[in-house]
Amino acid sequence: MIRGYRWMLSALVLTGALVLAGCSEPGPAAQPLVTGSTADTPSRVVTAIYAGALRNAGADVSDDHPVGDYGQLLEGMDDRSVDLMPAWSGELLGQLNPGAAGRSSEDVYSELNQALPQGVSVGDATSVQNKQLVYVSAELATAADADELADCGRLPAGLPLVAVAEPAPVTLTELAGAGCAFAPPVVLTDDEAIAEVAAGRAAGLFSALGVVGDDSGLQALTDATDTMRAQDLVPVFRTAALDRNLFRAMNKVAGELTTADLTTMAAEVDGGAEVSAVAGRWLAEHGS
Asked: Where in the chain do CATH 3.40.190.120 domains reside?
Protein backbone atom coordinates (compact mmCIF):
# COMPACT_ATOMS: atom_id res chain seq x y z
CA MET A 1 0.00 0.00 0.00
CA ILE A 2 2.83 2.37 0.93
CA ARG A 3 4.71 1.41 -2.24
CA GLY A 4 1.60 2.15 -4.31
CA TYR A 5 1.14 5.50 -2.59
CA ARG A 6 4.75 6.46 -3.28
CA TRP A 7 4.38 5.49 -6.94
CA MET A 8 1.24 7.60 -7.22
CA LEU A 9 2.94 10.55 -5.50
CA SER A 10 5.92 10.33 -7.87
CA ALA A 11 3.58 10.25 -10.84
CA LEU A 12 1.73 13.34 -9.57
CA VAL A 13 4.99 15.23 -9.05
CA LEU A 14 6.16 14.33 -12.56
CA THR A 15 2.82 15.34 -14.03
CA GLY A 16 2.94 18.64 -12.15
CA ALA A 17 6.43 19.33 -13.41
CA LEU A 18 5.34 18.70 -16.97
CA VAL A 19 2.36 21.00 -16.54
CA LEU A 20 4.56 23.71 -15.09
CA ALA A 21 7.03 23.29 -17.91
CA GLY A 22 4.25 23.54 -20.45
CA CYS A 23 2.90 26.69 -18.81
CA SER A 24 6.24 28.34 -18.24
CA GLU A 25 6.67 31.65 -19.97
CA PRO A 26 8.79 31.58 -23.12
CA GLY A 27 11.87 33.75 -23.05
CA PRO A 28 12.74 36.35 -25.65
CA ALA A 29 13.89 35.21 -29.06
CA ALA A 30 17.50 34.00 -29.29
CA GLN A 31 18.25 36.49 -32.04
CA PRO A 32 18.34 40.22 -31.19
CA LEU A 33 15.07 42.12 -31.25
CA VAL A 34 14.69 44.47 -34.21
CA THR A 35 12.70 47.70 -33.85
CA GLY A 36 11.48 49.51 -36.95
CA SER A 37 9.68 52.76 -37.67
CA THR A 38 8.28 54.98 -40.34
CA ALA A 39 10.56 57.75 -41.61
CA ASP A 40 9.07 60.68 -39.67
CA THR A 41 10.92 62.07 -36.67
CA PRO A 42 8.35 61.28 -33.93
CA SER A 43 8.29 57.63 -34.98
CA ARG A 44 12.09 57.42 -34.96
CA VAL A 45 12.24 58.97 -31.48
CA VAL A 46 9.62 56.61 -30.06
CA THR A 47 11.37 53.60 -31.59
CA ALA A 48 14.62 54.63 -29.92
CA ILE A 49 12.78 54.94 -26.59
CA TYR A 50 11.23 51.48 -26.90
CA ALA A 51 14.58 49.99 -27.96
CA GLY A 52 16.30 51.55 -24.94
CA ALA A 53 13.59 50.40 -22.54
CA LEU A 54 13.85 46.84 -23.83
CA ARG A 55 17.64 46.91 -23.50
CA ASN A 56 17.35 48.20 -19.94
CA ALA A 57 14.99 45.30 -19.20
CA GLY A 58 17.64 42.82 -20.33
CA ALA A 59 16.82 42.29 -24.00
CA ASP A 60 19.39 42.01 -26.75
CA VAL A 61 18.25 44.69 -29.20
CA SER A 62 19.81 45.02 -32.63
CA ASP A 63 21.30 48.28 -33.84
CA ASP A 64 19.53 47.65 -37.17
CA HIS A 65 16.59 49.98 -37.65
CA PRO A 66 14.37 49.15 -40.65
CA VAL A 67 12.41 52.13 -41.97
CA GLY A 68 9.28 51.72 -44.06
CA ASP A 69 5.56 52.24 -44.18
CA TYR A 70 3.18 50.20 -42.04
CA GLY A 71 2.66 47.60 -44.74
CA GLN A 72 6.39 47.02 -45.15
CA LEU A 73 6.98 46.80 -41.41
CA LEU A 74 4.13 44.33 -40.95
CA GLU A 75 5.63 42.22 -43.74
CA GLY A 76 8.85 42.33 -41.73
CA MET A 77 6.99 40.96 -38.73
CA ASP A 78 5.64 38.18 -40.89
CA ASP A 79 9.13 37.11 -41.97
CA ARG A 80 10.57 37.86 -38.48
CA SER A 81 12.91 40.60 -39.64
CA VAL A 82 11.02 43.20 -37.54
CA ASP A 83 9.80 42.66 -33.98
CA LEU A 84 8.29 45.99 -32.94
CA MET A 85 7.18 49.32 -34.37
CA PRO A 86 5.24 52.34 -33.10
CA ALA A 87 2.04 53.24 -34.93
CA TRP A 88 -0.84 55.71 -34.83
CA SER A 89 -3.87 53.60 -33.99
CA GLY A 90 -6.39 55.24 -36.31
CA GLU A 91 -4.03 55.45 -39.27
CA LEU A 92 -3.04 51.78 -39.00
CA LEU A 93 -6.65 50.70 -38.52
CA GLY A 94 -7.68 52.65 -41.61
CA GLN A 95 -5.08 50.82 -43.67
CA LEU A 96 -5.94 47.37 -42.32
CA ASN A 97 -9.70 47.88 -42.39
CA PRO A 98 -10.77 50.94 -44.43
CA GLY A 99 -14.41 50.37 -43.49
CA ALA A 100 -13.82 50.33 -39.73
CA ALA A 101 -16.42 52.32 -37.83
CA GLY A 102 -14.34 53.13 -34.73
CA ARG A 103 -13.70 56.77 -33.90
CA SER A 104 -13.07 56.95 -30.15
CA SER A 105 -9.77 55.82 -28.66
CA GLU A 106 -11.39 52.77 -27.09
CA ASP A 107 -13.23 51.67 -30.23
CA VAL A 108 -10.23 52.22 -32.50
CA TYR A 109 -7.98 50.23 -30.14
CA SER A 110 -10.47 47.37 -30.00
CA GLU A 111 -10.95 47.24 -33.77
CA LEU A 112 -7.20 47.47 -34.35
CA ASN A 113 -6.70 44.42 -32.13
CA GLN A 114 -9.10 42.50 -34.34
CA ALA A 115 -7.62 43.77 -37.62
CA LEU A 116 -3.96 42.94 -36.95
CA PRO A 117 -2.51 39.86 -38.68
CA GLN A 118 -2.21 36.63 -36.71
CA GLY A 119 0.86 36.61 -34.50
CA VAL A 120 0.95 40.41 -34.18
CA SER A 121 -0.29 42.25 -31.08
CA VAL A 122 -0.75 45.80 -29.88
CA GLY A 123 0.48 46.96 -26.48
CA ASP A 124 -0.93 49.61 -24.17
CA ALA A 125 -1.72 52.91 -25.85
CA THR A 126 0.32 55.89 -24.71
CA SER A 127 -1.27 59.24 -23.91
CA VAL A 128 0.45 60.65 -27.02
CA GLN A 129 -2.12 61.76 -29.56
CA ASN A 130 -1.67 62.83 -33.15
CA LYS A 131 -5.31 63.38 -33.96
CA GLN A 132 -5.91 66.16 -36.44
CA LEU A 133 -7.94 69.05 -35.10
CA VAL A 134 -9.22 72.31 -36.51
CA TYR A 135 -7.42 75.34 -35.12
CA VAL A 136 -8.53 78.96 -35.41
CA SER A 137 -7.24 82.18 -33.89
CA ALA A 138 -8.39 82.83 -30.34
CA GLU A 139 -10.02 86.05 -31.56
CA LEU A 140 -12.00 84.25 -34.27
CA ALA A 141 -13.07 81.52 -31.85
CA THR A 142 -14.45 84.14 -29.47
CA ALA A 143 -16.21 86.08 -32.23
CA ALA A 144 -17.87 82.93 -33.58
CA ASP A 145 -18.51 81.45 -30.11
CA ALA A 146 -16.81 78.28 -31.31
CA ASP A 147 -15.12 76.00 -28.80
CA GLU A 148 -15.84 72.54 -30.25
CA LEU A 149 -15.75 70.96 -33.67
CA ALA A 150 -19.54 70.75 -33.43
CA ASP A 151 -19.50 74.59 -33.55
CA CYS A 152 -17.66 74.55 -36.89
CA GLY A 153 -20.76 75.77 -38.72
CA ARG A 154 -20.52 79.07 -36.83
CA LEU A 155 -17.26 79.94 -38.58
CA PRO A 156 -17.47 82.06 -41.76
CA ALA A 157 -18.51 79.95 -44.75
CA GLY A 158 -15.73 79.60 -47.28
CA LEU A 159 -13.02 80.29 -44.69
CA PRO A 160 -9.71 79.06 -46.14
CA LEU A 161 -8.37 75.84 -44.65
CA VAL A 162 -4.59 75.48 -44.45
CA ALA A 163 -2.59 72.36 -43.61
CA VAL A 164 1.03 71.25 -43.64
CA ALA A 165 0.22 68.10 -45.63
CA GLU A 166 -2.56 67.15 -48.01
CA PRO A 167 -5.51 66.02 -45.87
CA ALA A 168 -6.84 62.53 -46.49
CA PRO A 169 -10.23 62.43 -48.23
CA VAL A 170 -11.79 60.74 -45.20
CA THR A 171 -10.66 63.68 -43.05
CA LEU A 172 -12.40 66.19 -45.32
CA THR A 173 -15.53 64.03 -45.22
CA GLU A 174 -15.43 64.01 -41.44
CA LEU A 175 -15.08 67.81 -41.36
CA ALA A 176 -18.00 68.25 -43.72
CA GLY A 177 -20.06 65.96 -41.49
CA ALA A 178 -19.30 68.25 -38.56
CA GLY A 179 -20.75 71.21 -40.47
CA CYS A 180 -17.46 72.78 -41.55
CA ALA A 181 -17.86 74.77 -44.78
CA PHE A 182 -14.22 75.49 -45.57
CA ALA A 183 -12.75 76.35 -48.94
CA PRO A 184 -10.60 73.58 -50.47
CA PRO A 185 -7.46 73.03 -48.36
CA VAL A 186 -4.16 74.73 -49.17
CA VAL A 187 -0.85 73.15 -48.15
CA LEU A 188 1.70 75.55 -46.63
CA THR A 189 4.86 75.27 -44.60
CA ASP A 190 4.48 75.03 -40.82
CA ASP A 191 5.34 78.67 -40.19
CA GLU A 192 3.18 79.96 -43.04
CA ALA A 193 0.17 77.91 -41.97
CA ILE A 194 0.39 78.94 -38.33
CA ALA A 195 0.82 82.59 -39.31
CA GLU A 196 -2.33 82.49 -41.48
CA VAL A 197 -4.38 80.93 -38.70
CA ALA A 198 -3.02 83.19 -35.96
CA ALA A 199 -3.93 86.23 -38.08
CA GLY A 200 -7.52 85.00 -38.41
CA ARG A 201 -7.27 84.64 -42.19
CA ALA A 202 -7.75 80.86 -42.20
CA ALA A 203 -8.57 77.79 -40.16
CA GLY A 204 -5.79 75.26 -39.77
CA LEU A 205 -5.88 71.47 -39.83
CA PHE A 206 -2.99 70.44 -37.57
CA SER A 207 -2.11 67.43 -35.49
CA ALA A 208 -1.35 67.77 -31.80
CA LEU A 209 2.33 67.19 -32.61
CA GLY A 210 2.30 69.94 -35.22
CA VAL A 211 1.51 72.88 -32.95
CA VAL A 212 4.21 73.72 -30.45
CA GLY A 213 3.85 76.02 -27.48
CA ASP A 214 0.98 77.81 -25.79
CA ASP A 215 1.70 81.30 -27.14
CA SER A 216 0.87 80.76 -30.81
CA GLY A 217 -2.49 82.53 -30.53
CA LEU A 218 -4.28 79.41 -31.79
CA GLN A 219 -7.25 77.64 -30.28
CA ALA A 220 -8.23 74.07 -31.10
CA LEU A 221 -11.88 73.18 -31.63
CA THR A 222 -12.12 70.17 -29.34
CA ASP A 223 -13.63 67.03 -30.80
CA ALA A 224 -15.91 66.08 -27.92
CA THR A 225 -18.06 63.78 -30.06
CA ASP A 226 -15.17 61.89 -31.73
CA THR A 227 -16.01 63.06 -35.22
CA MET A 228 -12.38 62.58 -36.20
CA ARG A 229 -10.84 59.14 -35.76
CA ALA A 230 -8.51 58.80 -32.75
CA GLN A 231 -4.78 58.68 -33.46
CA ASP A 232 -3.15 57.29 -30.33
CA LEU A 233 0.45 56.12 -30.27
CA VAL A 234 0.62 52.35 -29.73
CA PRO A 235 3.42 49.76 -29.90
CA VAL A 236 2.78 46.97 -32.40
CA PHE A 237 4.90 43.84 -32.01
CA ARG A 238 5.35 40.19 -32.87
CA THR A 239 3.50 38.40 -30.09
CA ALA A 240 6.19 35.72 -29.68
CA ALA A 241 9.03 38.24 -29.50
CA LEU A 242 8.37 39.65 -26.03
CA ASP A 243 8.20 37.83 -22.71
CA ARG A 244 6.25 39.19 -19.77
CA ASN A 245 9.18 41.21 -18.42
CA LEU A 246 9.76 42.95 -21.75
CA PHE A 247 6.04 43.51 -22.19
CA ARG A 248 5.95 45.28 -18.82
CA ALA A 249 8.92 47.44 -19.80
CA MET A 250 7.18 48.48 -23.00
CA ASN A 251 3.95 49.30 -21.18
CA LYS A 252 5.85 51.36 -18.60
CA VAL A 253 6.89 53.64 -21.45
CA ALA A 254 3.26 53.79 -22.57
CA GLY A 255 2.23 54.95 -19.10
CA GLU A 256 4.69 57.85 -18.97
CA LEU A 257 5.28 59.20 -22.48
CA THR A 258 3.20 62.31 -23.24
CA THR A 259 2.38 64.34 -26.32
CA ALA A 260 4.38 67.26 -24.91
CA ASP A 261 7.38 64.97 -24.35
CA LEU A 262 7.36 63.68 -27.90
CA THR A 263 6.74 67.10 -29.42
CA THR A 264 9.75 68.52 -27.58
CA MET A 265 12.03 65.57 -28.41
CA ALA A 266 11.07 65.54 -32.09
CA ALA A 267 11.83 69.28 -32.30
CA GLU A 268 15.26 68.67 -30.74
CA VAL A 269 16.06 65.94 -33.27
CA ASP A 270 14.87 68.11 -36.15
CA GLY A 271 17.19 70.76 -34.78
CA GLY A 272 20.20 68.45 -35.05
CA ALA A 273 20.25 66.43 -31.83
CA GLU A 274 21.03 62.70 -31.98
CA VAL A 275 17.96 60.50 -31.67
CA SER A 276 19.73 58.07 -29.34
CA ALA A 277 20.86 60.86 -27.01
CA VAL A 278 17.40 62.42 -26.82
CA ALA A 279 15.74 59.06 -26.18
CA GLY A 280 18.40 58.08 -23.64
CA ARG A 281 17.83 61.24 -21.64
CA TRP A 282 14.08 60.61 -21.50
CA LEU A 283 14.65 57.01 -20.36
CA ALA A 284 17.04 58.15 -17.63
CA GLU A 285 14.60 60.78 -16.39
CA HIS A 286 11.78 58.23 -16.22
CA GLY A 287 13.75 55.27 -14.92
CA SER A 288 12.75 53.13 -17.89
From this structure: 132-221
